[in-house]
Design goal:
2 domains; six-stranded mixed beta sheet; alpha+beta
Length: 320
């Protein structure tokens, strides 16, 4: 499931916001403006779903807490998540409580104590221009699946896929792979050989048959297997040197894709063919495309090695 926009939100510069928002949205959210009552998008809106900040995407209110206050603006009895911040507002000679979004710092409206008593007594009077509506049927697709239960829907289990890739020293490969959007976890280890329970020393004379490899768990809704191979794997190492990367020489440093399904096999072969014919490399692509065999995790000190030892040895970088 994709992460919602607010998961990595950083507030844009003013001009970026002007370009992104309509004039009314900008006036309301950035200049504490107020839209006209009864002439806005959501005052009489009844579809089930979630209302999120138009700037940051953070979830604010749910249709299950919406009620008709007669004010002409969308009204809610409570926020759906702790993303609504209250601030004293003494503008226009009045004493009110302003509400703003936590991450986006958007002006939303005001909160009053004249809401339905049987639902807490609060009325969050919100400008439609500060909101974006996400229908209940779109919650999973847009990263808001955890709210599906509010509407009688069952959140889908997160889908993951595993790729097993070899292309030289696993320290450098893991460091690049771990930072790719959509990659959920990485583990370095040994695979493709015949020695049981291999240790690092067992693999360094090419007699174990194992390759140093990285096991990549990723979210296919955010990162496709094709993109992982074509955009990343074939750029982070030289696939034309079958048993060598930089100063590392031996079959343990071979270039290999260990597919875990027939679909991965077809994709890997197709991507390899495209890369080979692209002219990016002066020599033929020698990457093996072979079925995955048993995976043996490497010793703990190899895991996340360059995180533990910044500036440590690596021969990997992303080529243009």
């Amino acid at each position: 499931m994709p992460r919602p926009p607010h998961a990595t939100f950083r507030k844009p510069a003013t001009q970026e916001l002007r370009d992104k928002l309509t004039p009314e949205q900008f006036h309301v959210t950035q200049q504490c403006g107020t839209e006209p009552p009864f002439r806005n998008a959501y005052w009489d809106h009844h579809e089930p779903g979630l209302y999120v900040d138009v700037v940051s995407g953070e979830p604010l209110f749910a249709s299950t807490d919406k009620f008709d206050s007669g004010s002409g603006w969308p009204s809610f009895t409570r926020p759906v998540a702790p993303n609504v911040v209250e601030k004293a507002d003494r503008s226009h000679g009045l004493q009110r409580v302003e509400v703003r979004s936590k991450a986006g710092d958007s002006h939303l409206g005001h909160v009053f104590d004249d809401g339905p008593l049987d639902r807490g007594g609060k009325r969050y009077c919100i400008n439609s221009a500060s909101l974006r509506f996400v229908p209940a049927s779109r919650l999973e697709a847009e990263g808001y699946g955890r709210f599906a239960g509010l509407f009688g829907l069952t959140p889908k289990a997160a889908q993951t896929e595993v790729a097993v890739l070899a292309g030289g020293c696993f320290w450098g490969m893991e460091e690049i792979l771990r930072g790719i959007p959509g990659v959920l976890a990485t583990e370095v280890g040994y695979t493709g050989g015949w020695v049981e329970n291999p240790r690092y020393d067992d693999t360094h004379d090419s007699k174990s048959g194992h390759a140093e490899a990285v096991r990549v768990t990723f979210d296919p809704s955010r990162l496709s297997y094709t993109e992982l191979l074509e955009r990343w794997f074939f750029r982070m190492h030289d696939p034309t040197t079958p048993n060598r990367q930089g100063n590392d020489v031996g079959t343990q440093y071979r270039s290999a894709i260990f597919f875990t399904s027939p679909e991965q096999q077809r994709t890997a072969l197709a991507v390899k063919e495209r890369v080979d014919g692209s002219g990016r490399w002066k020599k033929p692509v020698a990457t093996e495309v072979v079925a995955a065999t048993r995976w043996w995790p490497a010793e703990d000190y190899h895991q996340d090695y360059l995180q533990k030892h910044p500036g440590g040895y690596t021969c990997h970088y992303l080529r243009e």
